[in-house]
Amino acid sequence: MTEELTIRDVSARTGLSEATLRMWETRHGFPDPARRPSGHRRYSERDVELIAQVMADRDAGMSIKAAVERARRSVAEPESSIYAGLRRRRPDITPYLLPKATLIALSHAIEDECCARAERAVLFASFQRERFYRDAKERWRELARTADEAVVFADFPKAGRPEQDGPLEVPLASNAPLGREWSLVCDAPEYAACLSAWEIPGQEASADSEREFETIWTVEPELVREGARIALGLAEQAGAEVAASVADRLESPTPASPDELRLVTALTSRMVAYVGRGPASSLPEPHA
Q: Is residue 180 predicted with pLDDT exceeding 80?
């Protein structure tokens, strides 16, 4: 039988006052203890662990709100895929089948639009293989230099930041769903864009540039923020040490885009130029 702890027990175990525990519950809905018919709170050992996690994140510089949200995510079923996570949240988005060569061009357009706006972005990208990332290493070193954070996923041997001003490299296990994905998330104060795709199976004999991916992309700020949160969770699951300020930022309210239509137009125009395939109607339409 699970041991039931009183609020006094939890206060003694964690060092938080009973008043603070009640205040967190009122303001943040955390912790969420069981209630006896008398109304008395009863906590579990897991509650104590989550409270300790929130305290540690707070001491590391994270806001209480962000630390609480992170604790909630830790007890929820973790996402293993950016693409699948976004599709679960928004099944109305229409996917398009695109070759890898087109994905590269679209990714460059999104990245360069971010640079052109001089935005201090949080960037996440999944490259599948380390050798694919090495082809883009110099580009991502430049992106990381002006970003608040840049995180890249591939089959790296270990997590780390080989260069001080370069991106944080996060390893993928051989059976990780993200290993089949090509994803890019750019979350900035006035610029939000996300492209995510998964590789269709059975293309081992195809030329690398012609491998096909089922693809979605969006400039909807809240959906881009969801993509960034999923990517952050995946990095944390892999043991990467992402700055506490990133989690804090991703739990803050999503800023409204000053002109979403103008952003779509600018990005689509850049994509047309980069893909070189004629009219904009040949490109996948964004979710906006």
A: yes
